[in-house]
Design brief:
Length: 116
């Protein structure tokens, strides 16, 4: 949702959570209709599709594992990819330490001593 709106909106996030909690059986069409005013029809559709994938993944994960506290498989994959991406970016930020050949150091010291 944050990517679609280009900003973080806590009110909208809470609104979606409340809609899901209030419905005994969540209805993706209703949720999409409710969100269209905030996100526009195209983004609301995309968001609800992604949300529904997460909800189904969570449900399947709970059934397979018999543990409600487990993270949905979809989120585990997603967070793993994000962690890998962050690690790659961090490695790219740190320049490799370049070693200076000893010959160059000797030559620099010779020039330095000649100047003094």
């Amino acid at each position: 949702m944050t990517q679609m709106m280009k900003l973080e909106d806590d009110v909208l996030e809470e609104y979606v959570i409340n809609q899901l909690e209030e419905m005994k059986i969540p209805d993706p069409k209703k949720i999409q209709i409710y969100l269209t005013g905030f996100l526009g029809s195209k983004n609301a559709k995309i968001f609800v599709e992604q949300l529904w994938e997460l909800l189904l993944s969570a449900q399947e994960s709970d059934i397979e594992n018999g543990n409600v506290s487990k993270s949905p498989y979809y989120l585990q994959r997603s967070s793993s990819r994000e962690r890998d991406r962050a690690e790659r970016e961090e490695k790219e930020k740190i320049p490799e330490k370049k070693t200076v050949p000893e010959e160059a150091i000797k030559k620099a010291n010779e020039i330095k001593s000649e100047l003094n």
